[in-house]
Design a protein that fits this description.
This protein is an alpha+beta fold. The chain contains three helices and five strands; from the N terminus they run E-E-H-E-H-H-E-E. The strands form two sheets. It has a three-stranded antiparallel β-sheet with strand order 3-5-4. It has a two-stranded antiparallel sheet with strand order 1-2. The protein starts with a strand and ends in a 10-residue tail after the last strand.
Length: 104
């Protein structure tokens, strides 16, 4: 593994890991959580517990912000195979090519 990056394992959620730079001009503190959420959404559906596991506690607010920026994101009950939740959870899906009527 490259020492200038740190992988955040998403294996629990069935996703690949995302390399986040930890040094240099693109250090982790410069990567906005909103950009991290968008990167996860581009890989596929994202369960709200995955966002918590990635230390993104305000995931729903960031999804709302992304919607206002024009990204078509659908919210639905989490249906990921193997996911068990004590309380009902949602997953977010990037609906590329869909016009959901959100204004930017």
């Amino acid at each position: 593994m490259d020492p200038t990056t740190r992988d955040r394992p998403l294996a629990k959620a069935g996703l690949e890991s995302i390399a986040i730079p930890t040094s240099g001009a693109h250090a982790n503190r410069h990567v906005r959580q909103q950009d991290r959420v968008l990167a996860l959404l581009h890989r596929g559906p994202v369960c709200s517990t995955t966002l918590l596991g990635e230390f993104i506690p305000r995931g729903a607010a960031l999804v709302h912000r992304l919607r206002r920026a024009g990204h078509p994101i659908i919210t639905r009950p989490c249906s990921r195979p193997g996911h068990r939740h004590d309380t009902p959870q949602v997953e977010y899906v990037l609906g590329l090519g869909l016009d959901l009527g959100y204004d930017s």
